[in-house]
Specification:
The chain has an 8-stranded parallel beta sheet. Helix content is 39%, strand content 15%. It has 264 residues and is an alpha/beta fold. Helix 4 packs across helix 5 and helix 8 packs across helix 9. The chain has one domain: TIM Barrel (Alpha-Beta Barrel), CATH 3.20.20.
């Protein structure tokens, strides 16, 4: 009997109401769900503060909530007004999350690539965010994206039990990334994972095992950490787009479990 938990992001490539997606995730045999912190509007509006209640009604657990990353670079802005406005928005999300029963959030540090930012500015922004996280009891996991140096700067310079690391395997195995090294360096702060595969050229969000991510290496590190769930962020590949949603979900879980059974 498996002694690990599996999860998946609530958006997995099929347009349908959020409750229907959650219902299918449960039917497909997952334990955990990851959420995106914005209201749903199709086919009807669902307030984001209701999402966790929907999970509970299907006996699913919440792994983490991904906070929106639009205009994330405002955290590095030379304009103190722009920085503080974005910081204050994130603070409001943290309180919303606390009141909705969320205990772990994921946040991008930067957007894009090949940009030069003043490290002191983001230190100011993230110090305020993490201080608020401590007040709310929420953990904030910064994710590895294209400019790893800025994510690592925050992990190095801000010391708090409420700051952690979210490892995205697909981000890490595209050209110019660390190919597992960032996971080695920050495994002691790992509190969330986004597992998916790719072809090395682009962040494809393929089912694990379809591409060139070195899963044996990745799982050998992750298994010694305290993550709640081996959670995926996957969408159908071209050949999978005609699959029924439930069949895609089951295929994704089985692929992941084959990798886990081989390495755990």
């Amino acid at each position: 009997m498996k002694d690990y938990k599996t999860g998946i992001f609530n958006w997995f490539g099929y347009i349908m109401a959020i409750e229907e997606r959650i219902k299918l995730i449960k039917q497909a045999g997952y334990d955990y769900v990851m959420l995106w912190w914005e209201d749903e509007y199709y086919p009807y509006k669902v307030d984001r503060r209701e999402f966790n209640k929907i999970l509970g009604s299907y006996d699913l657990k919440l792994d983490n909530v991904h906070l929106p990353f639009e205009n994330t670079n405002n955290l590095w802005s030379e304009s103190s007004e722009e920085r503080n406005n974005h910081v204050n928005m994130i603070k409001r999300w943290l309180y919303e999350c606390r009141d909705s029963g969320v205990n772990t959030t994921v946040l991008h540090v930067t957007e894009g690539k090949e940009k030069n930012f003043d490290y002191s500015l983001v230190y100011d922004s993230f110090s305020k965010i993490i201080k608020e996280a401590e007040k709310t009891g929420i953990k904030v996991a910064v994710e590895n994206t294209q400019m790893l140096n800025y994510t690592e700067f925050i992990l190095k310079e801000i010391d708090s039990p409420n700051l952690g690391f979210c490892y995205d395997s697909s981000h890490d195995f595209v050209n110019g990334s660390s190919f597992g090294e960032i996971l080695d360096r920050w495994q002691n702060k790992l509190i969330a994972v986004h597992l998916s595969d790719n072809d090395g050229l682009c962040d494809r969000h393929w089912i694990p095992g379809k591409g060139h991510v070195k899963w044996d290496r990745i799982i050998s590190v992750i298994k010694n950490t305290n993550i709640k769930s081996y959670s995926m962020e996957t969408y159908p590949f071209e050949s999978e787009k005609n699959m029924l949603p439930i069949d895609f979900l089951i295929k994704a879980r089985k692929n992941l479990e084959e990798i886990l059974d081989r390495n755990l």
